[in-house]
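Hey L., structure's done. Input below.
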Amino acid sequence: MKIEIYNTPGELGIAAGKNAARLIHKAIETNGTANIILATGTSQFDTLNQLISEDIDWSKVTMFHLDEYIGLGVTHPASFRKYLQERFISKVPLLKAAHLINGETDPQQECERLGALIMQHPIDVALIGIGENGHLAFNDPPANFETAAPYLIVELDEACRRQQMGEGWFKTIDEVPLKAISMSVRQIIKSGHIICSVPDKRKAIAVKNCLEHQVSNLYPASILQEHKNSTVYLDKDAASLLSH
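Output:
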């Protein structure tokens, strides 16, 4: 794992987006195609803005996304499908494929459908973040580090739900769904390269716990320490509690 620290979220996003683009280019040159994972949330704004500005042959790129609430309509402001449609898919030339999670259908069948798809598409580059509670995707602590299933149904803890409300996606915590479909930790870690963008002071405790503690499912994103091709991009606020 590598750590890079920048002065502002904007500088962080430029660096992360440029590196992601470089890795996507490399995958296309090597394999003829690239398979990527995209995260959502406010932490990804600047990284995605940079990525869509890059000169990439998107017709050779297949996209998967990390997680989606169960039972939330695609028109809801907090829908991650809506987020990706508006902030990524609509802004790049036609993708080879975009495999979005449908949280409005049978969740177990959706996990199996997506699991079968992603097993046919080894991931070259995963763009992810770290939650305020240290979660990776919606794998809240204590995260399941054991399951080999690519996608699973998870219950969202209160800290996670409060983060979603705090970021402005919901008006009250009671509106935040209790369950979601999430890509599993082991599936994320199978990615060839991981770009982890983490801006903001409110992430500082999670960053310290996940980067300085031993790997533990109580700090789900600590698993990134074991991935040799992972880079964590921080701004000064997010990095402010690190010991060194």
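The helical segments are 9-31, 45-53, 80-87, 107-118, 158-166, 185-189, 204-212. Residues 2-235 form a domain with the Rossmann fold fold (CATH 3.40.50.1360).

-- N.
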